Amino acid sequence: MIQPLDLCRSQLPNVRQALEQAEVLCQQRGTRLTDLRRRVLEIIWNSPAPLGAYAILDVLRNDGRQGAPPTVYRALDFLLEQGLIHRLATLNMFTGCRRPDCCHSSQFLICRDCGQVEELSNPAVDELLRDEAATRQFEVLAQMVEVLGRCPNCRGVAFHAR
Amino acid sequence: MIQPLDLCRSQLPNVRQALEQAEVLCQQRGTRLTDLRRRVLEIIWNSPAPLGAYAILDVLRNDGRQGAPPTVYRALDFLLEQGLIHRLATLNMFTGCRRPDCCHSSQFLICRDCGQVEELSNPAVDELLRDEAATRQFEVLAQMVEVLGRCPNCRGVAFHAR
DNA sequence: TTGATAAATGTTATCTTATAACAATTGTTA
DNA sequence: TAACAATTGTTATAAGATAACATTTATCAA
User: Fold this and answer.
1) Can you give B6-41 as a three-state secondary structure string?
2) Which of A137, B6, B7, B142 is the most exposed place for a label (fewest CB within 10 A)?
3) Residue B5: its pLDDT value, please?
4) Could you tell me what percentage of chain B is helix, strand and coil, using 3-state DSSP and rounding each to the nearest 5?
5) Crossing angle between the packed helical segments A35-46 and A15-29, to the nearest 10 degrees
6) CATH entry 1.10.10.10 includes domain A7-155
7) ∠ CA(A111), CA(A112), CA(A117), 5° rounding?
8) From the candidates A6, A131, A132, A138, which should be mutated to test the interface with B, based on the most B CB atoms within 10 A?
9) What is the band of A7 on the pLDDT scale with cuts at 50, 70, 90?
């Protein structure tokens, strides 16, 4: 008996939960999650795959909002600062952070075909890179680890129920 | 007695050597390192820090060459395919590959201040990421590991001679 | 050598991503 | 309420990348 699983979706926390957590975090930090910023965060979480700034802008305009690129980029800057979203450098796109509550270095598995992203947080990767840097007296400010490939769904990998 | 070291420079292979190696590799592979492609590779190697496509284009035009963006991007595509250069996704820039002869996954230490780049090739990083991917039945096509920070020179770190 | 073909480059136009600069609005606090 | 800071609106443009088609150059078979 074959039982296909939708791995990617099963790992997406729901949108409302992400928004509530963002609300709490910003309150704790004394930063302002304005309407615009909350809406941008919501748009990002609503999307199954990462979004580009201009795609987000399109949604905002569909909302009936005014807006130009800076509108979006400023909101994105805020959300990045707060650790509520990540920027995927290889795609020039943005995706919701799965663990906005704690500082962590992330690694991303990005599916070339469907665009869905899995966020990892393997401390060993972080440590290895820090060690390499330390050896060279290099001060680490940020890490960017992205693995491009194909997710199980897009590979057509079937899982057999045990 | 204090002995400052110029670590970054000391690791840059010289340009001629890089070009000769590229020549040999392309000959072995039956690919054509044309004048344009060789010149672009030379421009990249001549620069102490990574270059953007348009900066390369400017140099080409100073050469007296004709050219438009596609001219450069096509040459860059070829050099990337041949593994003679790397693209730094966080900077949208290109840098010469230190080990074009062997397939390898690279990690980069990128100095935010001076822009200089150190290329690492730590197999453990590669393996960790492959393991994480394998666990998730994710097929790896490419890895992008970039560490942004400050190099010893820009931190003002002094080295003491032993 | 020539003609046919493929590869590389030239050229124009356009698309995508991102930011600078300044104006208007909104929120906060003395 | 006035003064100030933060946020958002608006216009323009910079910077990175590619599509589409023309032209040139290299390669190779006849």
Assistant:
1) CHHHHCCCCHHHHHHHHHHHHHHHCCCCCHHHHHHH
2) B6
3) 39
4) 45, 20, 35
5) 150
6) yes
7) 25
8) A138
9) very low
Please report which confidence band the pLDDT of residue A102 belongs to, taking 50, 70 and 90 as the band edges.
Answer: confident
**What's the gap in Å between the CA of B116 and the closest CA on chain A?**
12
Pairing of strands B107-111, B139-150: parallel
pLDDT above 50: residue B161: no
CB B89 within 8 A of CB B146: yes
User: Taking CB atoms and an 8 Å cutoff, what residues of chain A touch B149?
Assistant: 133, 138-142
Pairing of the two strands A107-111 and A139-150 = parallel
Question: What's the token pair of residue B85?
Answer: 């250069």
Sign of the CA dihedral B21, B22, B26, B29? positive
Nearest CA in chain A to B158: A137
Q: Count Cα atoms within 13 angstroms, Cβ side, for A102.
A: 5
Residue A90 has pLDDT above 70, yes or no: yes
CA B73 – C1' D23 distance (Å)? 19
Q: What are phi and psi of A131, to 5 degrees?
A: -60, -45
Domain boundaries, chain A: 7-155
Q: pLDDT averaged over chain B?
A: 90
Q: Residues whose CB falls within 7 A of nucleic chain C?
A: A 32, 52-55, 68-70, 73, 92-93; B 31-32, 34-37, 65-71, 74-75, 78
